């Protein structure tokens, strides 16, 4: 009897392990189009890619997601790519109320690879990223999202008024906004910006795909 119960328990556990990701994908697929259109049409989505400029977009991608246009949501090959692509970051932000390492990471990768990236164009992903990327916190503790809000808070400027160095300062914060905050840790931010500039000029390369800190560009 005990062996029978054990077998039944193992079967149920196996079905749960197999079934939960499948249910997640079905739910994610059913809401993706409506979710993305709502975000793109939101008042928070203010930056058009044309207003950012091809060169600035290319510079940001070289740092944040070098394989963005070629990968299908996941990238563990491109030097400096790190564990999380732009696509994964958006899925984490929009599909998870709470995120915990382990099972949540597996769910994140599945939704990104099988639902989000196939359904959302790269252009729309970029527009969402520029509008909703996390860039630290306001003085009251609420979160700063998007380059437009980041420009206003950290530089008291509209995004279109940013110098290229100021733009790179915001880009430098993307990896870890609290560690590289331009207002609290200007020297730390400046050092990362210098590494980014070396990378953009082709003077260095990340050591491997995990080298998000650009240790290869010291």
UniProtKB/TrEMBL annotation:
UniProt-listed SUPFAM superfamilies: Lysozyme-like
Location of the Glycosyl transferase family domain: 42-197
GO molecular function: peptidoglycan glycosyltransferase activity
The keyword NADP appears for this protein: no
Alphabetical list of InterPro entries matching this protein: Glyco_trans_51, Glycosyltr_51/Transpeptidase, Lysozyme-like_dom_sf, PBP_transglycosylase
Cell location: Membrane
GO biological process terms on file: cell wall organization; peptidoglycan biosynthetic process; regulation of cell shape
Pathways per UniProt: Cell wall biogenesis; peptidoglycan biosynthesis
The organism of origin for this protein: Prolixibacter denitrificans
Lineage: Bacteria, Pseudomonadati, Bacteroidota, Bacteroidia, Marinilabiliales
Name of the protein: Transglycosylase
Keyword Transcription regulation: no
Keyword entries, A-Z: Cell shape, Cell wall biogenesis/degradation, Membrane, Peptidoglycan synthesis, Transferase, Transmembrane, Transmembrane helix
Cellular component annotations (GO), alphabetically ordered: membrane; outer membrane-bounded periplasmic space
């Amino acid at each position: 009897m005990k062996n029978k119960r054990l077998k039944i328990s193992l079967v149920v556990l196996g079905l749960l392990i197999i079934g939960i990701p499948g249910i997640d994908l079905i739910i994610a697929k059913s809401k993706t189009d409506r979710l993305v259109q709502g975000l793109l049409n939101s008042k928070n989505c203010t930056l058009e890619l044309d207003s950012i400029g091809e060169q600035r977009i290319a510079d940001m991608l070289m740092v944040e997601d070098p394989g963005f246009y070629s990968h299908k949501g996941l990238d563990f090959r491109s030097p400096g790519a790190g564990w999380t692509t732009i696509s994964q970051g958006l899925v984490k932000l929009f599909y998870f109320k709470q995120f915990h390492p382990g099972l949540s990471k597996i769910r994140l990768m599945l939704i990104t690879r099988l639902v989000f990236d196939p359904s959302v164009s790269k252009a729309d992903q970029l527009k969402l990223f520029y509008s909703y990327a996390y860039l630290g916190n306001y003085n009251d503790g609420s979160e700063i999202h998007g380059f437009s809000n980041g420009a206003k808070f950290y530089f008291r400027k509209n995004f279109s008024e940013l110098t290229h160095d100021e733009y790179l300062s915001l880009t430098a914060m993307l990896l870890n906004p609290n560690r590289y905050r331009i207002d609290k840790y200007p020297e730390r931010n400046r050092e990362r910006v210098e590494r980014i500039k070396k990378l953009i000029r082709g003077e260095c390369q990340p050591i491997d795909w995990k080298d998000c800190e650009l240790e290869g560009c010291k």
